[in-house]
Amino acid sequence: MGWIIAIIVGGIIGWLASMVMARDASMGIFWNIVVGVVGSFIGRFIGSLIGVGSTLTSFDIPGLLMSLLGAIVLLGIANMVQRGRVR
């Protein structure tokens, strides 16, 4: 059941990050899920290092915000690689 929740939350986080980074039209649902899940790992890992959000396995608002931040950072890096600049 945890994987299903991770996919759903990852899809929502990826979709929100793609809207913030103006990439919503170029990404499908699969890539939204991938960006959300990978961005969640990045954001929660960074958050656990600096003390924001609890652990990598908790489900709370600061953790979700760090997941969104991680997904935005991931899309920013993807923009830099693809276009040579951040939108």
From TrEMBL:
> From which organism does this entry originate?
Qipengyuania marisflavi
Q: Where in the cell is it found?
A: Cell membrane
State the family it belongs to: Belongs to the UPF0410 family.
Protein's membrane topology: Multi-pass membrane protein
> What name goes with this protein?
GlsB/YeaQ/YmgE family stress response membrane protein
> What GO cellular component term, any one, is given?
plasma membrane
Q: Does the keyword Transmembrane apply?
A: yes
Keyword Transmembrane in record: yes
Under the heading Pfam families, the entry gives: Transgly_assoc (PF04226)
Mark the transmembrane ranges: 6-22, 29-52, 64-81
